[in-house]
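Go through this chain.

——
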Amino acid sequence: MIPLLVIIGILIVVGAWVVGIYNGLVRLRNQVKEAWAQVDVQLKRRFDLIPNLLETVKGYMQHERETLEAVTQARAAVAGATGMSQRGDAEGGLTAALGRLFAVAESYPDLKANQNFLALQEELASTENKIGAARNFYNTAVMSLNNKVEMFPSNIIAGMFNFTKDQFFELTDEGEREAPKVNFS
């Protein structure tokens, strides 16, 4: 009778251990999904601000059609992106195009004084900061999940229930890693 109770006790402990690890993996996977949703919310916010910015800028920057078209094309690339890697690349292109737009806007004193432009520029700057924070939160959540999926003994449970590593939000364009060059001449 006692050996049977010991075996039942061991099975209960092992079962509780498996359930605990499984629930931890589910929690981490859901944190990754929630973190990506937060990145997505901020990217959508920026995406929605861009048409208003372009409309404000168009009247002032009639000779800068190429810059305006670059922003429009980059925004379209974001809209058509599928998958996190492609989305990250498209978002990087959009960030670069917006940077060029603001650099060109410096040449238009009337535009720089326009209250609507200033408000949109501030909104975009705020959104960029929120995107950065959301990306950091996402990457932290991915690291936690990936650690749990790879580390012993949770890797055994992860393998049994098909938990997989997730991708970090990384820059793929090496040019984005370089510091911008500022020239006041």
About this structure: The chain has one domain: 2-171. Residues 2-58 form the longest helix (57 residues). The CA atoms of residues 52 and 179 lie 28 Å apart.
